[in-house]
Amino acid sequence: MVSILFFLATLVASAFADGYTCANIMRNPTQNLSEPYYYPETWRENMEPTKYAPNQICNWQINVPEGLYATVIFYKKTDSESGIKCTYPNGEQVYIEDNDQNPYKFTYPRFQIDLQVGDKQGEFSFKVVWSEYPDGRSMYIGLDGVHSIASVPTSYYTTVTAVNQVMLVGFSVPDVPLALLRQSAIYEGGYTNGTYLGNLVNARSGQIYSTSNKLGVYTFGLEKFINQTVFMVLDSRAAGDIVQYTGTNCPTDPNKSCGIFLNSQKNVSAVATISRQPDYLTLPKGFANSITLKIYGETMEESNLFATINSNYQSMFPLRVTNSLKIYHSDTGLLTVPVAKNADAAKWNSVFDGRYIIVRSFDFNRQSYAQDTTETFVTDPNNQMYFKFNVKYLDTNGPTTLDVNVYKNGVAVFTATYVFHSKKSIGVGLL
Fold first, then answer.
1. Topology classification of domain 138-239
2. What residue stretch is flagged as signal peptide (predicted)?
3. How far, in Å, CA of 217 to CA of 314, rounded?
4. In the chain, domain spans
5. Judging by beta carbons within 10 Å of its beta carbon (0-12, 13-18, 19+), is residue 270 exposed, middle or buried?
6. Whole-number CA gyration radius for the chain
7. What is the pLDDT of residues 68-98, one digit of tens each?
């Protein structure tokens, strides 16, 4: 009897040392949603991940009924094992990183976890929690076919309706790990039981379209971690000829650089930035003659075209781009335009020979009661400045005044005031 017990104990110890062997499992929610599902079932998150046996293949199919979503945290410690993956409801399969415990969110109807490992042992466990969507927290956005609307994470479920299709553009989040954006879901038709289209990580690679004229977004408590624009929605027709559309947030850390990166080698691309501060652009290191960069404010309409930059690029930078929504559109090639932290860093106020300066009120073509704009430009006291200026557009039927004051060594050497009463382009002279 003692020998048999000793033999059984040896088998158990050997199996534990070799790691678990998994089987194909289909799992439904626990009857009590407050009770998580753990794998292995004896494992808990305060433990090290459980070792698995080498040379095996298995999967877990986890069902997510209507009205629920699943939060999953993976605990993986391997030698960068590439055979451990998960599959979203839309069929997208993603690699599960080692030591990445940022949650995944999965929606109706199911998701799958796959384990296919070779002869190296590793550790892998996970925890699943099913939850109900909160009641009565909805926000509705109607798109007019021209304008774009941006959103930060909120506790509300957002339904977007377009004239044609809804286009959702994802934004970078440089101040937090990109993996946090997994805590989001984008649905067809504006309902949580609609077809899963992706999440905000997917939207960082390129825009997501609805197949109908409705789309829904939920961000699962992401507002606790991020207070920046994470997506923008617009009617598909409002994007014009853009094929690749992304959004950029600059880091809040002043020691980190920022730039507008446009990859138009295969298709027309655009990048959007959104803030109540201007973008101060500086001269790119490389600007091929074949590239045409167009910059728009608020919409892609010609009336909102801020600047067209091509072979004239040497005279166009630095550039101060206004409006809350700035759209950078490129038709070909690769281009990175540095974004300075402020006017001083960009040397915006310094004049050099041949420089072309665009000055525009911040809310041009938008209703605003604070459109007054003041700019000061300087040059070395030993240099003589010759300049001409042209009032190109007024977005209201006046009266609008332009005051020009020129100083030398603190003494006014020229003062003039011009008054305009119409929206027509008006040249006002050469000084």
1. Jelly Rolls (2.60.120)
2. 1-17
3. 42
4. 2-132, 138-239, 379-431
5. buried
6. 29
7. 999 999 999 999 899 999 999 999 999 999 9
